[in-house]
Amino acid sequence: MDRKRTIEEILGNFHEIGHVVSAAFRSFTAENDVTYSQMIILRVVKENPGLGIKELSSLIGITSSAATQQVDSLVQKGYLIRKINTDDRRSLSLYLSPVLARRIDKLKTAFLEKLTKYFDVLSDDELSEYARINKKVAGGLSVK
User: Is the CB of residue 92 less than 8 Å from the CB of residue 100?
Assistant: First the structure.
C-alpha cells in the first residue's frame, strides 16, 4: 500500500466534501446577512447559551474587543440577545434570538437531509465504520 498516495486521495475527497459543506454555509450566510465569523459566533452561542464575551472570545480565538464588535452587529440584526448575568450583574450573557434559533434548526434539518443523500452509497455498517474511522482521525488531529 502506498500510504502517501492513499492519504492524498483522502485529502482530495475531503476537498470535495468541504466544497459541499462550504456551499451550504455560504447560502446561509448570504440569506441571513452574516459573515463566516459571525456564523461561528452564532454556532458557539447556540452550543453554549448564556456565554459571556470573554468566554466567547477565548473559545473562538479573537480579542474581546473584536468579539464585542461582532456581537453588537448580531444584536442589531436581531440574531443575538444580551441578558444581564444573574451571577454577575456587571457582565452580560448571550443567547440566540428565538427566531434565529428556529431558522438554524430548519437549516440544519434541511442540510442534514441533503447530506444524508450523499451517504446513501454506504450501507448502515459501512456508515458506522466510516464514522468510527472519521472520529479516530479527527481525534488524532488534536494530538501533537
Answer: no
